[in-house]
Specification:
The chain has about 400 residues and is an alpha/beta fold. Helices cover about 35% and strands about 25% of the residues. Its EC number is 4.1.1.36, 6.3.2.5.
Length: about 400
Amino acid sequence: MSEVPAPSRRPRVLLGVGGGIAAYKVCELLRRLTESGHDVRVIPTRDALRFVGEPTWAALSGEPVTTEVWSGVAEVPHVRLGQGADLVFVAPATADLLARAAHGLADDLLTNTLLTARCPVVFAPAMHTEMWEHPATQANVATLRSRGCVVIEPAVGRLTGADSGKGRLPDPDALFDAARLILARKDLPADLAGRHVVVSAGGTREPIDPVRFIGNRSSGLQGYALARTALARGARVTLVAANVALPDPAGAEVVRVGSALELRDAVLKAAGEADAVIMAAAVADFRPDGYRDVKIKKTDGAEPEPIRLVKNPDVLVELVTARRPGQVVVGFAAETNDVLRNGREKLARKGCDLLVVNEVGERLTFGAPDNAAVILSADGASVDVPRGSKEALADVVWDQVAGRLK
């Protein structure tokens, strides 16, 4: 009689909730986690219950909810919860909660749990811009990141009242993606913690007239996967997005551009202080020589005037030329034939540290959820990445980058 395999244990997530108005968004994050097969225990602060009450958290999680270390003392919850967790995710992380965590204070169940957890710990801050930018908050964030915690950069947008700025809690779907990726990497260190990386994504569009442009098929999926996985590994990420219709990765600073010249300016500006730059965007090699202010009309019996093209700047070469000591520069090569030969020639011509070479086509790579590639190195080494998710390829790319940053 064959043995029946034991059911695999569901990932155990501790969801810490701080006392901020953004706590209402965390209800949706909790729902996403439980519906995707995670066991979730909510640990709110006392002030968090002023915004969302205990019955709501208990009903959504199916677990008891308490803020105190004195509840269920026989089970030693302030120790056992952290010891048994696969992930601790704190959202919203208020300025006060970040300060208490950074200084090791333990005056409630959540801060006690943070001291006992030996799994990945993620903070998703939310507060007014002035509070986020205050030197005390920034010092506390730096301290937490130096200990291997992931502190997601807050989003820019509408805050409470009439205020807008940086400090908004990212949307629940983006927070869920971050939690999922970090859980998948829980056995690996936050090897990009304290690093600033720049990723370009999408495809540029070169305008011909107010309604037409020269473009390409790039969807931005690979660049966004690179941004998400870098965030999961602790990096501060600037994402330069060209014509991408995808939700912003939680914690990334997103700079939206349209043309190759706009992308060039944004990437070179962001790269000035970056530890690594990955050019995953499909940048147009050419643009029309001149822009028509009005729509070009079709005239019966007449052929259209030819569109003369001029070269766009080579952004990757400019990055390599301007890079600062220790900076890692990675290029992408989308090839339709002689993939490896063309890739090696491009690597030698561009002078970057790594070149990710993949075969592309109408139904291959562009817009697809998976990818396969060869990562070529300037020292002659190569890494084959078999077809899999674009996040899997992104992780291998960051493995190569992280090794060079060390």
